[in-house]
């Protein structure tokens, strides 16, 4: 099977969909597929995977999107691809994989996390967003014009396809995955001790970890506020909240100080070795305002690390009785405080950890790619 995977940037060090695309591409190649990644820019190489850069053309974001769609069409012309899978709604694709969720759901989430004048202003300005309108038009054509099957990363995204596009067929769930080093890594204990020493956490002190690119979208402010409240109420002064991400932390450092927790909230830059931070942590917190299916939570689960997240995160679907505490909203402070308390308790945490360990195989790349290949057999021809 000859497969083209389309993504804007191909830099797996960025995490998220880039990392997922890299892991999927390598496993598809291992299964004997002929795999090409078509991107605007890329800095990645892997055995059996051809990365083809088409560059960026245009003076505006919208013109670059249209030109990228045209460049993808030229890149596949005459090359005999069976599958053109894209994470963006690119015309001619026969497999749409909206890792960022559907466009209408993204807009709804943007409104949901705002209040008062900010919400009103976003309602007024959203129709003026030409780029988003073009994305929405491309997506509508793909999903209602019969040109693609939609392989959703979670049931939440499948429900969006029904809600916003009335789709009852040509839409399936191929649940997201996360690769991870062995949970029995030789360096795990050493990394745990070293990083805990660096952040001033005792061996038995609860350490919570959050990993995010967009701090606002992932509820970092709410995580800090609830952490400070739980820490004050519980008297657990030795606890730590570690925030890993590339966004400037200054606003959030001030918030931690205002909450009386500046000594307990640690900010760390992005790293390619995120599992070293996982080694240091007892639990992960990701208070997503919108997340089709967060890899952060799934990666933690593969290391038997429980999480706290929201119902707006499709990753919550992976967990049944234990493994992840799901709260209604990032604003549900009382529930988040209670979740901090639950996972700070070693006995309760161990129960959730055991639930995570039962998911290790299901969340792996092998299951994910096996389901993808099966679904590819139901894709229409490339337009």
Total strands: 15
Could you estimate the helical fraction of the residues in percent? Answer: 40-55%
The termini sit apart by 17 Å
Instruction: Provide the structure class.
Output: alpha/beta
> Per CATH, what is the topology of the largest domain?
Rossmann fold
Mean pLDDT: 92
Q: Largest beta sheet: what is the strand line-up?
A: 5-3-1-6-7-8-9
| Main pleated sheet | 7 strands, parallel
Rg computed from alpha carbons, rounded to a whole number of angstroms? 21 Å
Tally of contiguous helical segments: 14
Shape: globular
Strand proportion: 15-25%
CATH superfamily of the largest domain: Glycogen Phosphorylase B
How does this model look, in words?
This protein is α/β, with parallel strands linked by helices and 383 residues long. It folds into 2 domains: 2-102 and 129-177 and 364-376, 3-Layer(aba) Sandwich (Rossmann fold); 188-357, Rossmann fold. It has helices at 16-30, 61-76, 103-112, 116-125, 130-144, 155-165, 188-199, 220-234, 250-258, 274-280, 295-302, 333-344, 346-357, 365-376; strands at residues 2-6, 9-10, 34-39, 41-42, 49-53, 83-86, 95-96, 149-152, 171-173, 207-211, 240-244, 265-268, 283-286, 307-310, 324-327. The strands form 3 sheets. The protein has a 7-stranded parallel sheet with strand order 5-3-1-6-7-8-9, with helices on both faces. α7 packs across α10 and α8 crosses α12. The protein is globular, with a radius of gyration of 21 Å.
Helix and strand layout, with pairings?
Layout: E1 2-6, E2 9-10, H1 16-30, E3 34-39, E4 41-42, E5 49-53, H2 61-76, E6 83-86, E7 95-96, H3 103-112, H4 116-125, H5 130-144, E8 149-152, H6 155-165, E9 171-173, H7 188-199, E10 207-211, H8 220-234, E11 240-244, H9 250-258, E12 265-268, H10 274-280, E13 283-286, H11 295-302, E14 307-310, E15 324-327, H12 333-344, H13 346-357, H14 365-376
Parallel strand pairs: 1-3, 1-6, 2-4, 3-5, 6-7, 7-8, 8-9, 10-11, 10-13, 11-12, 13-14, 14-15
Helix pairs in contact: 1-14, 2-5, 7-10, 8-12
